[in-house]
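New to this. Help decode both lines:
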Amino acid sequence: MHSLDASTVVFAVIAIVVIFKLRSVLGTRTGAERRPLDPTSPARGDTPPANGNVIPLGPVARAGVAPTPPVDRWKGFAEKGSTLADGLDAIVAAEPGFAPQSFLAGSRAAYEMIVTAFASGDLTTLRRLMASDAYANFAAAIAARKAEEQTMKTTLVSIDAADLVDARVAGTTATVAVKFAAKLASATLDRSGAVIDGSTTAVVDHLDVWTFTRQLGSRDPNWQLSATQTVH
């Protein structure tokens, strides 16, 4: 047997002490330890996403089930359960992008443009904004005015209100009616410039219902004025 020198004995003692310390800190495997985490597999108890690595945030509609519309989706525009609300539902069912806020903003702009164009005899603008039957009536009135050598001067002072009063879908045609409350100063002048009807300065309240139509599914997003009615 070879003799052990002092240095060998010292290193052996140090090794035994180190092994003992490691076992006391790290422990030994018992067979009950949790498996190491695999970053490519789903966490325990979780169901892997059905669409690959994307985890949906928020509610997801089940296959074949349409999203539930808000309980009072037309609040501020139509009474819940009213004919108007049903008509708006029908329009949105055909064209989900329809929004009453945007429609009313556009109808206000159309009201101002048509009133101004009619007074000035601007047939080009009227043709673009109106359906054929309504345009024919406005064009006939302008022609009669010109035949009498009369002119019209109209100032739109304000549009005080624009409210939806009717909405419906018939076939592929959507129809929406808007009641306008506006203030105008309007007069008809003869060829010498004298006022023969109305006033260029007196402001008068006007209450009218304008009906707009549009072909659903059309690439043209614009609505056209199809009828006007004065409310007394």
Remarks:
- Strands lie at 151-170, 173-189, 195-198, 204-215, 224-230.
- The chain has a mean pLDDT of 81.
- The two ends are 128 Å apart (CA to CA).
- The chain has five helices and five strands.
